[in-house]
Design goal:
Chain A has 411 residues and is an alpha+beta fold. Chain A is built from 13 helices and twelve strands. Chain B has a domain of 152 residues: 3-Layer(aba) Sandwich (Rossmann fold), CATH 3.40.50. Chain B is 33% helix and 28% strand.
């Protein structure tokens, strides 16, 4: 049987190469279809990887707790409108939930920052030292402040890359410099390593960190001491993220004395949730892509079927001769199926090359990241075989059902 | 000699719309192994239908057909294909070689469907081409060969499986006198020297004269069946 297959494949190649233009035009549909799929999937995968990278800049296994809205006389405030979360909520979480490796908090506001004759409106964050650990911030120079700095409400600041670029001259050393935030002098003790865009697209490096206590007492001013803008927590293991989030909810609901019929006055988001939102966007893209791909492969497959039907008619006498010398139905079916699959596979391979080239060109011209995975290429290959088999079946079957006498007499 | 072919009360009825055509009407025939038989008859006599049934390309509507003591009537399509492949060689009027395929590969074709190894296919096909005097032309395509040579490739293809029966349907119909003589000489030699049973359909009396037995078909029945006795015809066609 392998000899039969090999010979049939060789015969198919020879028969197809007799009429190269026709074979080429027939393949074109598959080439374009597979090429489009490969290019689109590689762009989609590239985009997905870029999103995943951005989500990863949030930190590792991060859970965020945001204050909820407050309803006053039926008027509902927006999210974060209520001052419902406090430092003691955070400390309770740390004490009650051993799964949490770190718990931190922060509070933010946009403030004018001055260094010499330069000024910049930046996002100032008052944070607990653990926040830096949770969000995976590292330093390009200097270092973090400590719990002691927080306890004594020291005026020390950590600045992000964007802030450095806007407040300092090129070559000026930020560490040790004194900047003023809302006219309060702060000593810069560390410059943060750049993180780039967040998953929402905002610049994460346009930031200044100061101790929470300092922010509360000396910069922002506050109605309720100890109220926070958000709580942050992290777990050691990714799979603990969702159960930990559930426990956080229980602890905070208890502390806030919420009745079972009352809504949460806070919102919990885990890194997994945020990643999912981003992925759903690329899933929409993927669905559209498959729609396009199936249409073009359908058209390509019909092209193959059409040309095979023509071929069956043209070669009726040949089929008759083959039957006369002892070809069985399955031999004839195999012959035409293999011709169909040869067309679709050669077309598929060319399509893979075209797709890879298309992805490269996209990266070179548009600058979009593209990823060509072995799985995509394999899937395209297998799919082109399937298209050949599916659309070859009808012509092959038709050929095999010819009556040898009529086929031999066919002019 | 044992009967290679035995037909009993063969009927073949075609239906063309409302019209019923009786191509064979209770034909009886017996051919022994090693015979060289010419079947003659005008068009519409039923001789083509008979050849199709003898060649296992078609099934009779009624009646029995034994080939090598196997009742071929009522076999399935694949079983008939097997019989054609192993026991019958075909030579057609229009050669019916596969276009753009070399002489060697044309001759290999039946072995290919038998599932013989590629090497054995090559060896047997080369030997068969040699037997019909085409050594050195294995790589030629049909278009590069003369009509007589093409027919010799077809004979090689029929011979390659060592069939017990060779069916030649107007084998010289498309050939000039010289080539016709060559082809008939080859068939004659195969019959005499290798004992292959040959059934020849022709309407040319000088071609039929090569055979030892002449059967005339008319209206779907055997009209005359006579042994021409002489193995070598009295009047060979002139060059």
């Amino acid at each position: 049987m392998p000899a039969f297959l090999l010979f049939t494949v060789l015969t198919a190649i020879r028969i197809l190469s007799r009429n190269r233009l026709r074979a080429g035009l027939t393949m074109l549909g598959i080439v374009i279809g597979v090429g489009a799929v490969i290019a689109m999937v590689s762009i989609g995968e590239g985009a997905k990887a870029a999103v995943a990278k951005r989500v990863a800049t949030m930190g590792t296994n991060v859970i965020m707790v945001l204050p909820g809205s407050m309803t006053t006389s039926g008027v509902r405030g927006g999210q974060g409108g209520a001052v419902t979360l406090t430092i003691s909520d955070g400390m309770e979480l740390k004490k009650r939930i051993p799964m949490l490796s770190e718990v931190g908090w922060g509070k933010r506001d946009t403030m004018q920052i001055i260094n010499g004759n330069k000024n910049w409106s930046g996002l100032v964050n008052g944070i607990s030292p653990s926040y830096l650990t949770i969000r995976d911030w590292s330093f390009s120079s200097g270092g973090a402040f400590t719990q002691q700095d927080v306890d004594t409400a020291d005026r020390v600041a950590l600045v992000g890359q964007t802030v450095v670029e806007n407040l300092f001259d090129v070559g000026e050393e930020p560490v040790g410099a004194v900047i003023r935030i809302k006219n309060v002098p702060f000593r810069v003790i560390g410059v943060l390593s750049p993180k780039g865009q967040s998953s929402q697209g905002s610049d994460q490096d346009d930031i200044i960190f100061i101790p929470f206590s300092t922010a509360e007492r000396k910069v922002f001013g506050t109605q309720f001491l100890g109220s926070v803008g958000a709580l942050f927590a992290s777990t050691e293991r990714l799979e603990d993220l969702t159960p930990a989030a559930a426990q956080i909810r229980d602890v905070i609901r208890t502390r806030h004395r919420l009745q079972p019929d009352q809504e949460d006055d806070f919102t919990i988001r885990t890194q997994v949730d945020i990643g999912k939102v981003q992925e759903s966007t690329s899933e929409t893209l993927t669905v559209m892509l498959f729609a396009i791909a199936s249409v073009s492969l359908l058209v390509g497959g019909i092209g193959i079927m059409n040309i095979l039907l023509v071929s069956v008619t043209e070669r009726t006498r040949e089929i008759g001769v083959r039957m006369a010398v002892g070809a069985k139905r399955r031999h004839i079916v195999m012959q035409f199926l293999i011709e169909a699959v040869t067309l679709s596979v050669v077309g598929g391979c060319l399509g893979i090359l075209v797709g890879i080239l298309g992805a490269r060109v996209t990266t070179a011209i548009a600058g979009w990241p593209t990823i060509i995975s072995a799985e995509t290429v394999m899937a395209a290959f297998v799919f082109s075989i399937a298209v050949g088999l599916f659309f070859g079946l009808y012509p092959a079957n038709k050929a095999s059902r010819l009556n040898p006498i009529d086929a031999l007499r066919y002019e | 000699m044992a009967a290679l072919i035995r037909c009993e009360d063969l009927w073949k009825i075609y239906r063309l719309g409302d019209v019923e055509v009786q191509a064979l009407r209770g034909l009886n025939l017996s051919i022994a192994s090693g015979e060289f038989v010419a079947i003659m008859g005008s068009s519409g006599s039923g001789k083509s239908t008979l050849m199709n049934i003898l060649g296992c390309l078609d099934q009779p509507t009624r009646g029995r057909y034994w080939l090598n003591d196997v009742d071929a009537a009522g076999l399935r399509a694949d079983q008939l294909a097997d019989i054609r492949n192993r026991q019958i060689g075909f030579v057609f009027q229009n050669f019916n070689l596969i276009p753009r395929t070399s002489a060697l590969e044309n001759a290999q074709l039946p072995l290919f469907y038998r599932g013989v190894s590629l090497r054995e296919q090559r060896a047997l096909a080369t030997a068969a081409l040699c037997r019909v005097g085409l050594q050195g032309r294995e790589g030629h395509y049909p278009t590069q060969l003369s009509g007589g040579q093409q027919q010799r490739v077809a004979i090689a293809r029929a011979l390659v499986t060592e069939p017990s029966l060779l069916l030649a349907d107007e084998p010289t119909g498309n050939l000039d006198t010289e080539s016709s003589r060559e082809i008939m000489a080859i068939l004659d030699q195969l019959n005499k020297e290798q004992g292959i049973t040959i059934i020849l359909v022709t309407h040319e009396t000088d071609i039929a004269a090569y055979a030892e037995r002449e059967i005339v078909i008319k209206d779907g029945r055997v009209l005359t069946d006579r042994h021409t006795r002489l193995a070598v015809p009295l009047s060979r066609p002139e060059v």
